[in-house]
Design goal:
Keywords: ATP-binding, Nucleotide-binding, Transport. By secondary structure, the chain is of the alpha+beta class. The protein contains eight helices and 17 strands. It folds into two domains: 218 residues, 3-Layer(aba) Sandwich (Rossmann fold); 82 residues, Beta Barrel (OB fold (Dihydrolipoamide Acetyltransferase, E2P)). The radius of gyration is 23 Å and the shape is globular. The chain starts with a strand and ends with a strand. The mean pLDDT is 93. Bound molecules: adenosine-5'-triphosphate (ATP).
Length: 319
């Protein structure tokens, strides 16, 4: 894979707190890569370093063949979109999008702004003030404002997290469309697994300042290689094997009511289509679910279960 954006041995710290350690990552031109992981795993810090908002303790960042490690943000040709849109309230949508281009005295301003408006479907809103737009529309203005600068890389930090669930879905698809249409390389930060799975060409799963696993959404979802990755994508029953690794099952893969093992129901929850159970057993804690139409188990009840080998993923290590 060609390295359009390359992070090599990147170590990032705030004073004595090392937030990211010796991280290596290559991103191809035109790729949409998500940095995914729980709060505090170092996603935002990594993104801030690519943008030039913090200087690495060690390592190197290059973009399109150029070492940008020591360059200020303004000379890196990266765009940033945050969850708070930070639009200028006293400027129209048009002027918000034109702002950066004017500052740089760029040619063809009107055509580029019109193009930006069209890309995000806001042609009809050029003269509105930001306060007269919905949250999703404001987010689109922020996106267009970055896109018209034609950055080499667009960095998006949880850009959808201020939107309600319905709008998030719309904006997800919108982002994907814009990315495919413009061919721009995007790095997308999120803690939301389903968002990363839906949007990304590749997912970088992070844990404790390091990369846990990199893969396509399909690979991350169906073939996690560590206990952390498995748990993060919903393989909630994880048991050690003899070789230092383990096996993991999704709740739906656990067979209840028959099988060689026995446990006690310690938790039940109704979840619409499914009913979820926590079962305590000699093997450890088992998370299982059954169709809501199946007969419900009750707390304290003993239940037989099976963990079919052919429904498990094999983990290289737990942890
Ligand atoms: N300004 C700061 N000063 C000191 N430590 C910081 C600072 N910002 C972040 N950290 C620490 O660096 C680590 C990584 O933080 P970072 O913000 O990159 O995580 P994140 O994965 O983006 O989390 P979130 O999803 O909560 O934004 C955390 O341990 C955090 O406490």
């Amino acid at each position: 894979m060609s390295d359009f954006v390359s992070l090599e041995g990147l170590t990032l710290a705030y004073g004595n707190t090392v937030a990211v350690e010796a991280l290596n990552l290559s991103i191809a031109r035109g790729e949409l890569v998500s940095l995914l992981g729980p709060s505090g795993c170092g996603k935002t810090t990594t993104m801030r370093a690519i943008a030039g908002l913090m200087t690495p303790r060690a390592g190197r960042i290059s973009i399109d063949g150029r070492d940008v490690t020591r360059l200020p943000p303004s000379r890196r040709e990266v765009g940033l979109v945050f969850q708070s849109y930070a639009l200028f309230p006293h400027l129209s949508v048009y002027e918000n999008i034109a702002f950066g281009l004017r500052l740089r005295g760029e040619a063809g301003l009107d055509a580029r702004v019109r193009d930006g408006l069209a890309t995000v479907g806001l042609d009809a809103f050029a003269d509105r003030a930001p306060r007269d737009l919905s949250g999703g529309q404001q987010q689109r203005v922020a996106l267009a404002r970055s896109l018209v600068m034609q950055p080499k890389v667009l960095l998006l930090d949880e850009p959808l997290s201020n939107l309600d669930a319905r709008l998030r879905l719309d904006m997800r698809m919108e982002l994907q469309r814009v990315q495919k249409e413009t061919g721009i390389t995007m790095v997308f930060v999120t803690h939301d697994q389903s968002e990363a799975l839906a949007l990304s060409d590749r997912i970088v799963l992070m844990n404790g300042g390091a990369i846990e696993q990199v893969g396509t959404p399909e690979q991350i979802y169906s073939a996690p290689v560590t206990g952390f990755a498995a748990d993060f994508v919903g393989f909630e029953t994880i048991l050690p094997d003899d070789a230092g690794g383990g096996l993991a099952w999704r709740p739906g893969a656990v067979v209840l009511g028959t099988g060689p093992h026995e446990g006690t129901v310690r938790g039940t929850a109704f979840a619409g289509e499914r009913r979820e159970y926590i079962i305590e057993s000699a093997l450890g804690r088992i998370k299982a679910d059954t169709p809501a139409s199946a007969q419900a188990l009750t707390l304290g009840e003993k239940v037989a279960f099976d963990l079919p080998q052919d429904r498990a993923v094999r983990l290289e290590r737990l942890g």
